[in-house]
Amino acid sequence: MKKGLIRIVWLILIALAFIPTVSFADDTGETIGDLTWKLVDEKLTISGEGTMDGYSSKAETPWYSEIENIKTIEIEEGVTSIGNHAFSGCSSLT
User: Fold this and answer.
1) pLDDT recorded at residue 24
2) SS3 of 71, please?
3) How far does CA 49 lie from the centroid of its chain?
4) Among residues 33, 77, 78, which one has the least CA distance to residue 55?
5) Beta strand pairing status for 50-51 and 35-40?
6) Which residues, including other chains, have CB under 8 Å from residue 76's CB and lie 6 or more apart?
């Protein structure tokens, strides 16, 4: 009985080693026109030179799938305008 239990625990531990871990340290990011966005440690940073595209709804923003993870937003020097609905639905902002 004891050997069977140890074997089951051992198999579970081995199986858990193959499960990918989730990290929000450097989740996402991509180029949108002349700008780049990146979400690191719950901070959305918009950088680059120029204007941000407008969006007709929050679901069209490139960071929509991460919207609940955005706590702060930094818009770096060089960004000359913010698009419509860019931060609509960012209800976790602090």
Assistant:
1) 37
2) coil
3) 22
4) 33
5) unpaired
6) 45, 46, 47, 48
Could you identify the residue written with the tokens 């009985």?
A: 1
Other CB atoms within a 10 A radius of the CB of residue 26 amount to 10
In which residue are the tokens 């929000």 written? 24
Which ranges of the chain would DSSP assign to H, the alpha helix? 2-17
Residue 50 CB coordination number (10 Å): 12
Token pair listed for 87: 């931060």
pLDDT in tens, the chain (94 residues): 677 777 777 777 676 666 654 333 344 677 777 899 999 999 999 999 999 888 899 999 988 989 999 999 999 999 999 989 999 999 999 8
Among the listed residues 84, 92, 91, 82, the one whose alpha carbon sits nearest the alpha carbon of residue 35? 82
Residues composing the chain: 94
Q: What pLDDT shows up at residue 20?
A: 52
The reply to whether the predicted model has a pTM over 0.70 is no
